[in-house]
Amino acid sequence: MLTLKGKHIYLRALEPEDLEFIYAIENDESIWELSCTQTPYSKFLIKQYLENAHKDIYEVKQLRLVISNYSDIALGMIDLFDFDFKNSRAGVGILIKETSERQKGIGNEALSLLLDYCKSYLNLHQLYCNISEENEASLKLFSKHRFQIIGLKKDWNYVNGSYKNEYLLQRIN
Asked: Environment class of residue 11 by beta-carbon count within 10 Å: exposed (0-12), middle (13-18) or buried (19+)?
């Protein structure tokens, strides 16, 4: 039986109360590189996004879930993006907000839960992700879950005055 509940964390839908949490993440310049963000987001825009977050993944081609602990503290987010029903694939992104909470198994547990969901509910044949060549923690995490590097995109992202390479990883179920 599938559940979005793990031993230490659970995945949940976005709620209006997540406005400040998402606002903080989307406007943290230190992580803009991960999402290719170039400009800040207003609370107004994020509120509009939250008002539409209930829409079905088949309609909006994206699913964003909050990673929460059992004290109901939001720790991060995990996304499916570019959902392609016809070809049975989607991209995956994950972020643990606080650096002090990273590399504690939260991302590992969240990714495991999401992968089970993708297989059981969405019947996805393949998933992919894009990871900076320098992001060793994410490369290790996704490799642990049978994602394989299938290519290197050279000079793919312009960050702080220089170009960085990015790996494309894929997992076929």
From this structure: buried
CA distance 157 to 155: 6
Helix crossing, 136-144 with 106-120: angle to 10°?
40
Mean pLDDT (whole number) for 158-168: 92
Highest mean pLDDT among 97-101, 139-143, 155-159: 139-143
Domain boundaries, given as residue ranges, for the chain: 9-124
Task: Tell me the mean pLDDT in the region 149-167.
Answer: 93
| Residue 1 scores a pLDDT above 50 | no
Q: Is the separation of the CB atoms in 110 and 67 below 8 Å?
A: yes
36/158 Cα distance (integer angstroms): 9
Question: In the CATH scheme, what is the homologous superfamily, with its name and number, of domain 9-124?
Answer: Gcn5-related N-acetyltransferase (GNAT) (3.40.630.30)
CB 20 within 8 A of CB 96: no
Tokens found for residue 90: 């989607």
Give the separation between CA 147 and CA 135, rounded to whole angstroms.
15
The predicted model scores a pTM of: 0.91
